[in-house]
Specification:
By secondary structure, this protein is α+β, with helices and mostly antiparallel strands. The chain is 31% helix and 40% strand. A hairpin with a 2-residue loop joins strand 1 (5-16) and strand 2.
Length: 159
């Protein structure tokens, strides 16, 4: 099954005038999409190990899942149409009142990333989708130079 997926990691998040640019990569190629600035801030907070004074929406949902015996086990970007990315978040739950339950929920990749990093779960892109996406490594390097980041090996070191 894993051969149908390409494992990716967050490489960088950059603020833009209208949101946040997210780069995901597999070590050979980076892809780019844009998200709402508040979700970008939520993702960046976790990557930086920052604790907000009050739980953010993704924290609240994650705490609720844990209380119900659930956890996020992966996210997969499953499609791209007209530069709009589509993802699925896989949740597994098991508690004293039910047998093990596995569900996959359609969601925005930004929300899926925000939840996945909170649970330490892997991120994937369907292989056929990945192969049709343009490599944005040069764009990433240009943005990194503009923002003063010469080395982007660890997104946790950026703010």
């Amino acid at each position: 099954m894993k051969e149908n997926f390409v494992r990716v990691e967050p490489v960088a998040l950059f603020p833009t005038p209208s949101g946040c640019a997210v780069f995901l990569g597999d070590g050979k190629k980076e892809i780019l999409f844009y998200i709402d600035p508040s979700i970008g801030a939520s993702i960046q907070a976790v990557l930086n190990d920052d604790q907000p004074p009050r739980p953010l929406s993704h924290d609240f949902f994650g705490q609720t899942l844990k209380a119900l015996g659930g956890k996020v086990t992966r996210m997969v970007i499953v499609n791209v149409e007209d530069e709009v990315f589509f993802a699925q978040l896989r949740i597994e739950a098991e508690n004293e009142t039910m047998a093990k339950k596995v569900i996959e929920i359609d969601c925005r990749p930004s929300d899926a990333i925000a939840m996945t990093i909170r649970f330490g779960a892997p991120m994937y892109v369907l292989k056929e989708v990945w192969e049709n996406l343009r490599d944005m490594s040069e764009t990433l390097q240009e943005l990194a130079q503009q923002e003063g980041f010469e080395d982007l090996q660890d997104p946790r070191s950026e703010s």
